[in-house]
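Sample entry was shown:
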Amino acid sequence: MEVVILTGMSGAGKSTALKMMEDLGYYCIDNLPIPLISKFDEASGKFATEVNHVAFGIDVRNWAYIEELVNAIASLKERSVSVKVLFLDADEDTLIRRYKETRRSHPLAGNKRVEDGIKEEREKLEGIRAIADYIIDTSHILTRDLKVELEKIFVQNQRFANLFINIISFGFKYGIPNDSDMVFDVRFLPNPYYVDKLRYLSGNDKEVQDYVMESPEAGIFLDKLEDMLEFLIPNYVKEGKTQLVISIGCTGGRHRSVTLANALYERLKEKTSYGLRVEHQDLRRDITG
């Protein structure tokens, strides 16, 4: 029997992920009391031939026993049960925003602020996060991206390095994305804005892409950036980083930055098994290059 413990921060998407696991063929149980987890393989003996893949959704509703979860996992492993821990996380700003959007209170906040509940929960989950086999940061990924990552791990059995890479194009006139880990300025490239037939197009259009990439400097920039990332990414993974935001900016975030962000995405897609997505933050704001 294969058991997946699906846990993590409240608001990080555990309920959504558990539904996805069910779609992947897992028998899913949400919020099973932690003391019962270590006994589950014994109780499931009668239907073990029908149920080979089980996922337990565990969150702070089980908080009174959360510290026992590590022991429960160890107990299953001692009995040769295959156990994997999937931990969903998100940064504090994202979690707070999600709580405000849904108008829900944090389960540990009580009469305190949401930030206080998040801090307490993170402390309680330190032990289980430390032994997690997979950590997915959902701060910047869409529901479909999360589904792709779960399929990679639990269906395709691909190597997973606990890193999700976000490539973001943006316009400097609107400000640098505040969660950027790396920022690159491509305003040194020829600006399609000053070409009448290209002005109202974007870096998603082939005509603009061809114009930008005709510049030798564009290819050189991509080669050097790709080479640097091939060195940096494995070292980020080694240090436990789970989210990497690469921001590429031009004046208005419509032409050059979009072209280079798309090109970098295509290059990395061919060479990496990490989670990967591209986002064009300011594409629809105006037509400045």
